[in-house]
Predict the structure.
Amino acid sequence: MAYKRIQIGSVLKSKDASQPDYIKINEDVTLKKGDTLNLESKKSKLASLEKNVENGKLSGDLADKIREGIEKMPDFVRFEIVKVTKD
């Protein structure tokens, strides 16, 4: 069974210290009762990548390319909001 992952937005740190963190939605989505959204930090994404490399699910250039993308995540992005659905 395959899973489809859609990054729909981010939880961002406010530039103004007197304001709270906020959510920015980047994709149009329809949410239904029972849907789950994952909050993925840079740290959790790197840990998941390393686990997949250790388990032999990813290797070489693909793992390096994914790691590069994760490392580019700016520090003001606390979490990425990801909707995961089963195909």
Summary: The mean pLDDT is 93. The first strand starts at residue 3 and ends at 12. Residues 42-54 form the longest helix (13 residues). The chain has one domain: 3-86.
